[in-house]
């Protein structure tokens, strides 16, 4: 059948008809809000490069998460900012670190009404700002593995539901899965930052979390964005090593990777709509160059359409309000 028997516009005639034929629906339960918690803060503080986002204090994080839960955003991922950084990132894995305390507080208050993911990495905690231990000016792969396992186990012990290794260290998923199992956390899931690319869209995050590397860059561990086949190999390895959820990061310049990952692996798939993607929309909207609400909904829907089951996004709260 073709024109004039077929007219595609028939099913676009009214809002209700358009809704009936809608193929992809964004839902509040798809969204995961990243939360920064800074040790030693007395109250929350704005993040200049991310309008509307704030670094939370250990006290303000509770009402902030309550606001999210109230709007049906019931998943968060925690990023900690310690008062003291050192060579070995030792504030990352102590039982009284800022993330470990926050997990306990959140679980006391919300129990299973909140899914707590934690970012497992070293870069906010190391004085050099790299994602692993540095020796001879290089990130030491195998030396870092045990540290990442300690971080993950400390999060699990505090009550995290899922740990999310983001260091792009080879073998991190396998090592963490093994350590979780050995310590009795068989039911704590691993969301692997499986295809994490060296990206200029992380800039605002690094300002927010004070995690810009002091020398060099992250290109010896994060992926080259020119290599889609390599992205699929990275994901295959993390699946093999025991990842429960795979993630592609960033999202918007990587929709092809999300699409291929979902098609090939048929795994629960997450996409990280990163800080730079958020800030670009905020900046253009502030200038009056785009309509903020419709741009955000278009972007989030496109990420789902590409194949993501869940989206880590700083737009979670505002999108939930519009979806509600
Ligand atoms: C660090 C980490 C980064 C992000 C999440 N975890 C940044 C980096 O690699 O420097 C970026 C998130 C964002 O930009 O929103 N392992
Ligand atoms: Zn890192």
The residue-averaged pLDDT reads: 98
Please give the domain count: 1
Biggest pleated sheet? 8 strands, parallel, barrel
Q: Could you state the order of secondary-structure elements as H and E?
A: HEEEHEHEEEHEHEHHEHEHHEH
CATH superfamily, by name, is Aldolase class I
Strand order of the largest sheet: 1-4-5-8-9-10-11-12
Please report which band the strand proportion falls in: under 5%, 5-15%, 15-25%, 25-35%, 35-45% or over 45%.
15-25%
Distance between the termini: 39 Å
Q: The CATH topology, please?
A: TIM Barrel
Give a count of the beta strands, DSSP E runs of length 2 or more. 12
Tell me the radius of gyration: 20 Å
Cofactors and ligands present? ligand PBG, zinc ion
| Level-2 CATH architecture | Alpha-Beta Barrel
Number of helical segments with 4 or more residues: 11
Structural class: alpha/beta
Question: Which ranges are low-confidence, i.e. pLDDT below 50, for 5 or more consecutive residues?
Answer: none
**The CATH C-level class name:** Alpha Beta
Query: What is the global morphology?
Result: globular
Q: Specify the helix fraction band.
A: 25-40%
Protein described:
This protein has 11 helices and 12 strands. The protein has 324 residues and is of the alpha/beta class. It has one domain (26-322): TIM Barrel, CATH 3.20.20. The strands form 2 sheets. Strands 1-4-5-8-9-10-11-12 form an 8-stranded parallel barrel, surrounded by 9 helices. A hairpin with a 2-residue loop joins strand 6 (134-135) and strand 7 (138-139). Helix 8 (255-265) packs parallel to helix 10. It is globular and about 70 Å long. It starts with 14 loop residues before the first helix and ends with a helix. The mean pLDDT is 98. Residues 119, 121, 123, 131, 166, 202, 205-206, 211, 218, 274-275 line the site of ligand PBG.
